[in-house]
Amino acid sequence: MIFRLILEIAAFYALVVVFVYFYQRNLQYFPDRSKPGTPKANDVPEMSIINIKTADGLDLVAWFAPPRQKGGKIVVLFHGNAGNLAGRAIKARYFIDRGYGCLLCEYRGFGGNPGRPTEQGLYHDARGALKWLEDNGYIPAQLVIYGESIGTGVAVQVASEIQPRQLILEAPFASAVEIAKRSYPILPVDWMMHDRYDSIGKIGKVHCSLLIVHGDEDPVIPIDSGKRLFDAANHPKEFCAITGGGHSDLYDHHAGHIISDWLDLQVEGEKRA
Predict the structure, then answer these.
(1) Residue 15: its pLDDT value, please?
(2) Domains, the chain, ranges and CATH?
(3) Can you give the pTM of this predicted structure?
(4) Are 61 and 114 in contact (CB under 8 A)?
């Protein structure tokens, strides 16, 4: 009887592992596939809808506002694993109001775009966005790479490739595997996870000014994970713990002002150099 019970438990566990293995991306990405409307309808009339082509043949929609002054900074924002770019218009507003350009990138499978999200797919999307900027005359020295949640994995990857002047990470993880282990401690996450976003293994290749903002009450990506990534990063760097901040509410705790003020100081420093 006990042996039979053990077999049934083992069989059930095996079924769970197989199910999660094949459907894991449904547990990692929660895209809003609906079209986001217009920038004007989302209170960023300065932005326009642009079309980005990826190396693997997708046509993606994104939103862009140029910097107020020629040669000004452009914040390239990669959002998290849920919603779509319209939900990040409030973040773009902070940068536009201070004269910066902003590119709200959108991923495959999000916001009416074709395709399905994967780690390598999101990297293709990010590179396509950077190629669009290059084709339109913008240079890496103008770019501020900004990642939010899972978008921090995308941001670290592209920052390691283009070496921008500034990198901003909002609620980052050391790796997606680390977070999955916390969420699913009984599963063999180490060998079964496809989209790993190993930021801690890449951050050492990034050589630019770094700002990390993280809520000290983040229930999704604990602040300790962000601190581990920070410790592995090169200087110059700054870590800002948002008191009372959760995962998706940091702009309710003045993160927008903190990030914008930091960027202003960065620009002033470049002018004096």
Answers:
(1) 79
(2) 2-272 (3.40.50.1820)
(3) 0.95
(4) no
